[in-house]
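Need tokens for this chain, all 337 residues.
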Amino acid sequence: MLFTALCLTFIVFFMTNLYPNLEKLAKSEGNFRMDDAAVQTMLSNRGYLQPLPVKYGQWLGVMPGYIIEGTDDKTRRRCQLPAMALEDVPKFCGILQGYWGYSTVFKAEVSSIIATRLSLTAKLMFWVMLLMVPSALLVGVFAGMREGSRTDRTLSTFAITTTATPEYVSGVIFIAIFSSSAFGLKWFKGTATKAMEDANLENFLLPVITIALYGMGYIARMTRASMAEVMTAQYIRTARLKGVSFRNIVVKHALRNALIAPFTVIMLQFPWLLNGVVIVETLFNYKGFGWVLVQAAGNNDIELLLGVSVVSVIVVLVTQLISDIGYVYLNPRIKVT
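Here are the structure tokens for all 337 residues:
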């Protein structure tokens, strides 16, 4: 996990620190009419022209931060905030020390921005998972119990339809039907901005349903395929010959084994929800983690973009670790060694 995290963060660090990005950053901070010499001077005074491994080590916090005497006779140190004295700046300051950088767009520390926006997306993720996972499992189990039946075909068609419909399509449809006066059904608000402070049925239901419907199809189809396979296993046939009721066969014998494959898909929904809600958060004006990702990328906010990438990498790796460990509890034949 550590090696993977280092590799992924280094790739993002390399891409964001390409010279065209740095040049754009300098001109946005200074003047878009700056000549090349002025851009070089500004980047040099802020440590951006150091060798890439050195900058990456300083960003991680394993190397001392730079101390640069600028052309304006002003000494600058890494991690020096606008109102911080030079002698108060720590020698080592990076991700490992809890310093995530300073946003050039929001004019605030990256860690505080990410904490605020991540909590908003976590609230959205909680209600989406609460609606999506039980519904998807029920659809998948009922479809897989009797493979090829009318129920199976109907539920499978529903699952494929929800998966094949992008969020920006279903979101617009929901807004047009339930929030527009064109259909006479102004039941819900088309914006979720107020849900950031006070979430309720009126301002939070549409974004939750929009995301849940799209992700539900993946889990339902995987559950259906796994359930259909388990129902044809030899031990299920033996249980039927012994006269065990169909309900007990499904609940006590088939369901647990059928949940192994869907469990992986469910855990994959967490990183998808973290970064995949960009469209929905933008559509419903909900300023969460996906929204701040768009702002960081669109405004070339390098420090904020790197902070977002670190959170994304950690979430992906941790959810996959939980998924691997969860196999042991779903299938006792798998051992942790």
